[in-house]
């Protein structure tokens, strides 16, 4: 899920990572949001996590074992963080037979890519000036009903970890004066959807440098802390 | 290998759009003249991409071009194609000045297919004035290759063998209806210049 | 320049060297790679591509057609491997089939449209199954990594560019394009594929036959480039077909026992889709190749209502001297057959209207609206009927 936008993550990471440390870019809806009168039930919609080995030539190879570990670590951290705030997280698998849900997820893919390319990448749309009002529409109600959910959280995360060969290339090139060879890093974007309206009320893009690692619980904690920064919950 | 290839392509694409973005996306509202041939009137503020010199298509959007896209062209001549390709030898759907209304809509549908719309299907065609011209109104459904359902509507007319057309497409889920009223108003506002 | 040539030579050498060291054992039935391997990574990525494919708008979901392809696949691969491979029918007008390492196989409708019998389909399925069983994707992946050379990536990229439309297809198809294999692997897949499909009792001539037909059809193309590609033996970049490969398959067939073609079963399975798939093919606007295909099918003598109608459509869009008359002739023939699609009447009406034969046009339109009460063109037709009242 979310692969169009997810494919942008490594590029964005490469661009941001020149600065190396953790960075986030929180965006909030300009629409009016009705306050919630109770602790929230939040659907976590099939988090899309993929961890790869970045090889010497710059080829990245997906690692099934790392992906599984990373995903589990990230889930635990999100759950802990939201639990501390008194909210309940419900993991939600998309049923491929549920046409409406599939459409909502695919719509979110496109909306996410649109936000990344027009807000984060700095190619603003004049028609959106002063507004952040992207929405998935009231069709999300169907998805909310099963769990009586108040919000849906969509998460896409990518991690790339350099092989020792890759690190050698980076250092070698740095010596030659050519910077900008990525030695990996972690990037993610997430959005929070208000299930009453379908509005994306909060959107964040976060990157953490090569020093952090979501394959480890601490690294996952660091990334999740960055990605859920300022979440209005 | 797949990743590396896709990523390079993507990066190049982004750079191109980023550069295009710097020169091009402008706000438009109110009356808009299309290549000196006809005028439409926009109710809301749209973002306009620069007119493509090859296809002569001009694209407007409100929420992002994957979420709503209003495409115009005016005075297209016999032999014109709506598809932008750097492959000069590529065989493509071509406009012919002797096309019937049904054939014009077929040409638009096939161009949408070649442009990447899966299952592009015309669900309705009906006569509808294009300003003072006899025009044809059509509705289309399809999907992105990844399976997001799309809806569209539009209008076309031939004036002295030259084709004018307006096509609106948006995801069926939420976005098509979001601006449907505005689009219908625009399609009703056509005046010849 | 000398440096470039030297680099090319070194690359070629490195590729050869890599081939020698990346050989892997065939997959046994029901086997999955263990988690920490590069192979598991390839599978994971392809599992995701497969999820996407399942939800995409281009998969043909018709149960009968899917059951038919599954049955042919199982005949060829044998019961043990029957469930390891999932065959997806993808609505794309190009001649193509491909195999991902995790067992996701794609057969494009442009291939089904051009195969002439079940035996030809069976050979293609056997060939693709051989790629799977011999783990060619994994070998290829390791070769690329061993060489770690941009020129290899580039050649892989070029393979993808060979199929038109690659840019607009979702990344599941792009991924498939990138799994184009080198000649050695194609030869190996031919040899295994041939054994599998003849072992299942199919006609050995079908293996060379499908390529021979395709080369003939391509020679009729309007595209100069496609014709040049035949000369360069690379019509299908993902499956480079060389004269040598076709000859080898011919020679295999000479030494093999005769088998069944199952032409009728195949024709019956694809008949319901013929009109749609030919319409998809016509969108490509290669009239030469398209008409060659239709003529070839008309000679076989089945589905004539559909085929005459589609031939009329091709002439109408081509618009060469005399094409409107040819189109009308074909529409007139088409409506004589029970299997003519309802659109045949609409097309006949339009063609007659163009000639000013309004009374006859009126009758054809009447028939169309009777067959298709919800026809999308109803308002247009009714407006015309009223005007000519």
UniProtKB/TrEMBL annotation, chain A:
Annotated signal peptide: 1-19
Presence of keyword Signal: yes
Keywords (A to Z) from UniProt: Signal
PROSITE patterns: PROKAR_LIPOPROTEIN
Keyword Signal listed: yes
UniProt name for this protein: Lipoprotein
Organism: Aquisalinus flavus
Taxonomy of the source species: Bacteria, Pseudomonadati, Pseudomonadota, Alphaproteobacteria, Parvularculales
UniProtKB/TrEMBL annotation, chain C:
Pfam families with a match to the protein in the record: Peptidase_M48 (PF01435)
Keywords per UniProt: Hydrolase, Metal-binding, Metalloprotease, Protease, Signal, TPR repeat, Zinc
GO biological process: proteolysis involved in protein catabolic process
Source domain of life: Bacteria
Record text on cofactor binding: Binds 1 zinc ion per subunit.
CDD domains per record: M48C_Oma1-like (cd07324)
Cofactor(s) for this UniProt protein: Zn(2+)
Extent of the signal sequence: 1-17
GO CC terms of this entry: membrane
Molecular functions (GO terms): metal ion binding; metalloendopeptidase activity
InterPro entries on file: Mito/Outer_Membr_Metalloprot (IPR051156), Peptidase_M48 (IPR001915), TPR-like_helical_dom_sf (IPR011990), TPR_rpt (IPR019734)
Protein name from the UniProt record: Peptidase M48 domain-containing protein
Organism: Aquisalinus flavus
């Amino acid at each position: 899920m979310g692969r169009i936008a997810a494919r942008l993550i490594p590029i964005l990471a490469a661009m941001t990572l020149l600065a190396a440390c953790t960075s986030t870019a929180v965006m909030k809806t300009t629409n009016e949001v009705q306050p919630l009168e109770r602790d929230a039930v939040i659907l976590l919609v099939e988090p899309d996590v993929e961890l790869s080995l970045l090889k010497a030539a710059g080829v990245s190879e997906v690692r099934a074992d790392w992906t599984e570990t990373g995903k589990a670590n990230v889930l635990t951290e999100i759950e802990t963080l939201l639990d501390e705030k008194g909210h309940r997280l419900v993991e939600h698998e998309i049923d491929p037979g549920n046409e409406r849900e599939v459409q909502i997820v695919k719509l979110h893919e496109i909306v996410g890519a649109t936000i990344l390319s027009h807000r984060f990448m700095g190619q603003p749309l004049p028609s959106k000036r002063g507004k952040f009002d992207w929405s998935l529409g009231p069709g999300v109600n169907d998805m909310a009903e099963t769990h009586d959910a108040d919000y849906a959280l969509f998460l896409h995360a990518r991690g790339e970890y350099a092989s020792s060969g890759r690190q050698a290339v980076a250092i070698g090139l740095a010596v030659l004066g050519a910077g900008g060879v990525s030695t990996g890093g972690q990037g993610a974007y997430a959005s929070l959807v208000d299930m009453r309206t379908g509005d994306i009320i909060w959107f964040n893009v976060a990157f953490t440098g090569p020093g952090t690692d979501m394959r480890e619980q601490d690294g996952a904690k660091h990334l999740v802390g960055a990605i859920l920064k300022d979440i209005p919950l | 290998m797949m990743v590396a290839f896709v990523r390079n392509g993507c990066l190049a694409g982004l750079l191109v759009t980023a550069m295009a973005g710097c020169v091009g996306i402008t706000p438009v509202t109110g009356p808009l003249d299309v290549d000196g041939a006809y005028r439409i009137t926009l109710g809301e503020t749209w973002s306009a991409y620069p007119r493509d010199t090859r296809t002569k298509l001009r694209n407007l959007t409100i929420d992002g071009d994957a979420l709503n896209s209003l495409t115009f062209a005016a005075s297209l001549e016999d032999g014109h194609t709506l598809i932008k390709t750097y492959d000069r030898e590529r065989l493509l759907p071509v406009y012919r000045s002797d096309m019937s209304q049904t054939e014009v809509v077929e040409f638009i549908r096939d161009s949408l297919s070649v442009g990447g719309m899966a299952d592009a299907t015309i669900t309705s065609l009906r006569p509808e004035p294009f300003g003072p011209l006899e025009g044809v109104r059509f509705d289309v459904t399809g999907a992105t290759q990844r399976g997001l359902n799309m809806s569209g509507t539009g209008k076309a007319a031939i004036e002295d063998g030259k084709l004018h057309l307006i096509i609106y497409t948006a995801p069926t889920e939420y976005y098509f209806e979001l601006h449907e009223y505005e689009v219908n108003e625009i399609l009703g506002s056509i005046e010849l210049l | 320049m000398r440096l470039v040539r030297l680099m090319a030579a070194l690359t070629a050498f490195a590729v050869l060297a890599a081939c020698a060291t990346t050989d892997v054992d065939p997959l046994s039935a029901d086997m999955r790679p263990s988690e920490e391997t590069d192979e598991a990574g390839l599978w994971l990525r392809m599992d995701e591509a497969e999820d996407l494919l399942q939800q995409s708008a281009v998969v043909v979901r018709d149960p009968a057609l899917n059951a038919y392809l599954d049955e042919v696949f199982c005949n060829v691969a044998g019961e043990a491997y029957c469930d390891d491979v999932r065959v997806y029918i993808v609505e794309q007008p190009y001649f193509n089939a491909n195999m991902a390492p995790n067992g996701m196989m794609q057969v494009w409708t442009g291939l089904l449209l051009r195969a002439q019998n079940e035996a030809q389909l069976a050979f293609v399925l056997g060939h693709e199954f051989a790629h799977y069983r011999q783990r060619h994707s994994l070998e290829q992946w390791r070769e690329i990594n061993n060489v770690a050379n941009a020129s290899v990536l580039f050649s892989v990229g070029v393979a993808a560019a060979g199929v038109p439309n690659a840019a607009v297809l979702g990344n599941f198809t792009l991924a498939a394009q990138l799994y184009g294999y080198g000649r050695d692997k194609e030869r190996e897949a031919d040899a295994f594929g041939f054994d599998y499909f003849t072992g299942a009792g199919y006609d050995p001539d079908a293996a060379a036959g499908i390529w021979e037909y395709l080369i003939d059809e391509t020679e009729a193309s309007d595209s100069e480039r496609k014709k040049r590609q035949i000369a360069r033996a690379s019509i299908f970049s993902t499956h480079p077909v060389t004269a040598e490969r076709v000859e080898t398959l011919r020679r295999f067939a000479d030494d093999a026992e005769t088998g069944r073609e199952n032409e009728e079963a195949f024709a019956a399975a694809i008949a319901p889709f013929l009109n749609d798939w030919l319409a998809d093919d016509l969108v490509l606007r290669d009239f030469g190749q398209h008409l060659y295909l239709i003529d070839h099918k008309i000679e076989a003598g089945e589905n004539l209502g559909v085929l005459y109608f589609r031939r009329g459509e091709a002439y109408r869009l081509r618009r060469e001297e005399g094409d409107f008359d040819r189109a009308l002739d074909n529409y007139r023939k088409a409506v004589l057959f029970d299997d003519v699609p309802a659109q045949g009447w609409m097309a006949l009406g339009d063609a007659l209207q163009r000639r000013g034969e309004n009374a006859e046009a009126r009758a054809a339109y009447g028939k169309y609206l009777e067959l298709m009460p919800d026809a999308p063109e109803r308002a247009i037709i009714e407006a015309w009927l009223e005007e000519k009242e």
